[in-house]
Design a protein that fits this description.
The chain has 285 residues and is α/β, with parallel strands linked by helices. The protein has 2 domains: 18-215, 2-enoyl-CoA Hydratase, Chain A, domain 1; 237-284, no CATH class. The protein is 45% helix and 13% strand. It contains 12 helices and 9 strands. Strands 2, 3, 4, 5, 6, 8 and 9 form a 7-stranded mixed beta sheet that branches. α1 runs antiparallel to α9.
Length: 285
């Protein structure tokens, strides 16, 4: 990078039986605030969850970032963010790719740069936030299934995740390490003023993403919006990502959409009517 010397993001070991998902509260807010990207050959738009998204067939992955950077070549790049976060490992990999880009990287926050999205944002030589946008930081979050030995191992690894995240923030922001850790502990949502105060952003641009929500709503698939809002309601009610996958696939009669990486017995077990009724009650509440 041309303006800043940033550390390479450390890629910790991934725990066994780990399920990543964007934080439920952020997922819900993000689902209700679509944003349209600016067109341009030097623009990379990350307007999705980080990592593979089984439900929509989307998600923004390190593979997509690699392809986008190859297409742009040795030129300055603008990265537009509106993401609730997602897979930490994909987020660090994307950060490292942007860090290694030889020309200026400008990060533009159109809506949310939350969780893994905030890590990606730190790769920017310049971070610009639009009016009403947020950067959100928190400790590593995920669900681990297993026995007490698996959980003990995961607890140790999650400490290493948090340390790796703090290292990335600490190299980019003006706040000291203890302040960063406190912000993460509190699961902090920072608007432009607070983000600039702590060094998570450099400036605001009132015209950034102007009228983006109206443009996005005019062109977005209403079915996709409904799916996002349904999943967000389930997430807020405490359902895991795998449970949401099963329930939504059952409702749409599309069991083939279930995550192929999951164990066959779990993937093909289906959802009982009690779970469906629970979904209905959740959506009514």
């Amino acid at each position: 990078m041309t303006l800043r010397q940033l550390p390479k993001g450390v890629m910790p070991a991934r725990p066994k039986n780990l399920e990543w998902s964007a934080p439920a509260d952020v997922l819900a807010k993000w689902a209700d605030t679509p944003r349209a990207a600016t067109e341009g050959e030097d623009v990379i738009s990350i307007l999705d969850v980080i990592g593979e998204d089984w439900w929509t067939g989307g998600g923004f992955t390190a593979k997509r970032m690699s392809a986008a950077l190859r297409s742009i070549g040795d030129k300055p790049v603008r990265v537009q963010l509106n993401t609730p976060g997602g897979d930490l490992f994909e987020g660090i990999a994307i950060y490292n790719m942007l860090r290694d880009h030889k020309q200026k990287v400008t990060v533009e926050v159109l809506g949310w740069a939350a969780s893994a999205g905030s890590i990606i944002a730190m790769a920017g030589d310049e971070i610009v936030m639009g009016t009403g946008t947020f950067i959100m930081v928190h400790n590593a979050w995920g669900l681990v299934v297993g026995n007490r030995h698996d959980l003990a191992e995961a607890a140790t690894l999650f400490e290493s995740f948090d340390s790796a995240i703090v290292d990335i923030y600490d190299a980019r922001v003006s706040a000291d390490r203890k302040t960063i850790e406190s912000l993460m502990d509190a699961e902090t949502f920072m608007g432009p003023t607070e983000a600039i105060k702590h060094g998570f952003a450099d400036r605001t641009d009132a015209d950034l993403g102007k009228d983006a929500e109206a443009k996005a709503l005019a062109g977005i698939d209403p079915g996709l919006v409904a799916k996002r809002r349904t999943e967000a309601a389930l997430a807020r009610s405490g359902f895991t990502r795998n449970q949401r996958a099963d329930m939504l696939a059952e409702l749409t009669n599309s069991p083939g959409a279930r995550d192929a990486a999951r164990p066959t017995a779990t993937r093909d077990a289906g959802v009982d009517m009690a779970a469906i009724q629970q979904l209905i009650n959740t959506l009514k509440s």
